[in-house]
Amino acid sequence: MKQSQYIFPTKIIFSFFLYSIEHCIKEIQSEVNKQCPDVQLQTTTDCFEWLNNYNCDSLKSPSIPHGDLIKFLKTLQDLLKNEQNQEEMVLDLLWDISCQSSVSLPSTLSGTSFHFLSRTSLHSVEDHSSMDIKSIWDDIRLHLRRFLVSRLQSHNEINNSQQKILLKNQCIQQLLFLYPESEVTIKYQNIQSKLLAKLLQNCFSSYSRESNLDIMADGYQGTMLKLYSMIKEDFNTLHEILAPSSTVKFIKETYLDTLTEEMAKFLENFCEPQFKESAVRVIKTSKSSSRHRGAVHALG
């Protein structure tokens, strides 16, 4: 094929990309002129200069005076301590403040945050305001955590799988709003591990050393179906919240590792007495054979 045959389509592709870029620039100009009346971009050069000089710091959330912040947090603290059933309202309020008002809450930070920086001089009296903020905020978080953990545990009693997944998803997202992912994952892992331990206990405790392995296998199969449902529900609950690697790690550590460990313990406890009984029978048989051989030799 001749080289000239490549030129025409290449020009078309180049023209298409050029048109797309020009169209995007015009869209940016129009939007900036609409949203920022004090900025009027007339040319492509104006647009590029404005983008180059745009101050990304303007996207940062506004700071809150520490005095107002302490008053706000103390109000929430008193509300949770003195009024019943206010947890949902407080959670919604904090969520709205964070999302709609563009105020950054110290949700996943263990230290003092809230975009508050003390201006106290190194030579002045020590400033305890940041510690006050941390103390009050930690108390609020602890109260809300207990509420959400209790709710998570109660959701395990729901029979409707889809409803259970939806409610658990909401609870975990609210916990992630208050605490780092690692802490939330460990807390939820503890809840599910206890549930799994109860399931396995109910399965294995009904068998004794006299039980037939075939009967045990049938019961174990039913337990595995319940376990599969638990794993599936947790996967559907977590995969939209956590990273894929974190979700897989949670499933492995919570269910697969625990199941392997419990199965090993059970089989060891179940088989050990039978091995001992078999060993005793072998010894008795061996002694009986020895006596029999001795009697034969005596007769001979």
Automatic annotation (TrEMBL):
InterPro entries: DUF4495 (IPR027993). This is KIAA0825.
